[in-house]
Write a structure and sequence with these properties.
With about 425 residues, the chain is of the alpha/beta class. It is built from 16 helices and eleven strands.
């Protein structure tokens, strides 16, 4: 089983001068530490306007910084908001491919359609058609990363003429594809499932079985390869003292609190957030996550027990939600170190063998799935594109005439003779 670290860059409002800068610096230090400790992947979400839930509105920027500071950890862009209202599909293809080149081929391409009113209406994305827009755009993003040139597309939600989208990614045919939640849809499309719901072993088994059964029967890849992986989320804080772990880990409840506020039943006034005050008032009524079967908060021994249930269920990767509320950065780093030293070795020891066995078992199903895919045809002749015929920085005849009429002294001063 693999371990990924999940970053929202949560910072309760109001933000004092320097707080946001410090949060980004802390995240980069944490990723650098995770790389040194042997974690497999880090994931940075894309969220907009969720001011005290997530500062990661431009993850490709800080992920590039993370890639520059690390050597081996996979760089998960998860999730990119794909419906064209958020970004033109060509822009998404360009930024994912560029990040893949900058990182030396370490990108995992997580995708989603968004489900918060703050984000969808902020960008004018229709919630009734966002799924169709997402599917249309994602398929073409994959084609843009693979085809030279991209032959163009006339769709319901966006259109684009023939262009060669560059750069192409370092990984061929493109970085592994993931989708947020939705195990059945992920399997149908040949994508990994980013299970952003915290579950125990029994529920994880249901999700894993559904995913792999669908993958083997009904998969038609939306991309040009299949990424067969199922992940689930677990809140994590590790300490040798269970009480200390529970006390510090209680900060992670703020993550769930803000999810509920922005997605379910909250009232939000942009730029006037009082979420932390509301959280403090409601904290005593919130369930203790450390007692939940979905939690990895506690001592190494209690965390191992929870993770064994996920491993037995067949989970491929556990996404560790480790930062939230006002959890101290240094305490978070010490938790990561203890987890890597006393928890992780048991679960990664035979990972290469498990991966090889899984690949062999799924090879016939993946081959059949790729055979069912319909590929975008390339036209027999690539159309020529003629320029407009003018360029604002190119001197015109009038510009040259003015220079020739300049006095000799001025011309000399300007270096024109």
């Amino acid at each position: 089983m693999k371990f990924g670290l999940f970053y929202e860059l949560q910072l309760p409002a109001p933000h004092d001068d320097g707080d946001v800068t410090e949060k980004f610096r802390d995240a980069l230090e944490h990723v650098e530490l995770a790389d040194a400790l042997g974690f497999d992947c880090m994931w940075a979400t894309e969220h907009h306007f969720l001011e005290d839930h997530a500062l990661s509105s431009a993850p490709e920027v800080w992920l590039a910084a993370a890639a520059a500071r690390t050597k081996r950890i996979r760089i998960g862009h998860g999730v990119a908001c794909v419906p064209p209202g958020f970004s033109h599909p060509a822009k998404v293809a360009e930024r994912i491919s560029t990040l893949d080149q900058v990182s030396g081929g370490r990108v995992e391409f997580g995708t989603g359609e968004s489900s918060s009113r703050m984000e969808l209406e902020g960008f004018g994305v229709n919630p009734d058609t966002k799924r169709a827009a997402y599917l249309e755009a994602l398929e073409q993003i994959c084609n843009m990363m693979v085809m030279t040139p991209y032959p163009g597309f006339e769709g319901e939600h966006f259109s684009m003429p023939c262009r060669n989208v560059v750069p192409k990614p370092a990984q061929k045919p493109h970085p592994p594809l993931w989708i947020a939640g939705k195990p059945d849809l992920a399997a149908q499309l040949g994508m990994g499932c980013l299970g952003f719901n915290a579950v125990g072993g029994r529920q994880a088994k249901v999700m894993v079985d559904q995913y792999y059964e669908t993958l083997q029967k009904d998969c038609v890849p939306i991309g040009h390869t299949v990424n067969a992986n199922m992940s689930v989320l677990a809140q994590m804080h590790c300490d040798a003292d269970g009480e200390v772990a529970r006390e510090r880990g209680a900060n992670l409840m703020f993550f769930g609190f803000t999810v509920a506020k922005y997605y379910l039943h909250g009232e939000v006034r942009p730029g006037r957030s009082t979420s932390w005050e509301e959280f403090e008032q409601a904290r005593d009524q919130l369930p203790d996550m450390s007692d939940s079967p979905t939690s990895a908060i506690g001592t190494p021994a209690t965390i191992r027990e929870h993770l064994r249930a996920l491993q037995d269920a067949g989970v491929d990767q556990v996404l560790l939600l480790h930062q939230g509320g006002k959890l101290d950065h240094e305490a978070n780093c010490r938790s990561l170190e203890l987890f890597a030293k006393e928890v992780m070795p048991e679960f990664v020891e035979n990972e290469d063998k498990r991966e090889a066995q899984k690949a062999q078992r799924l090879a016939p199903a993946i081959e059949a799935a790729l055979a069912r895919k319909q590929y975008l045809p390339m036209p027999e002749e690539i159309p020529a594109v003629l320029p407009y015929g003018h360029f604002s920085h190119m001197p015109t005849a009038e510009d040259i005439a003015i220079e020739h009429s300049t006095s000799e002294d001025t011309a000399g001063a300007l270096g024109l003779r």
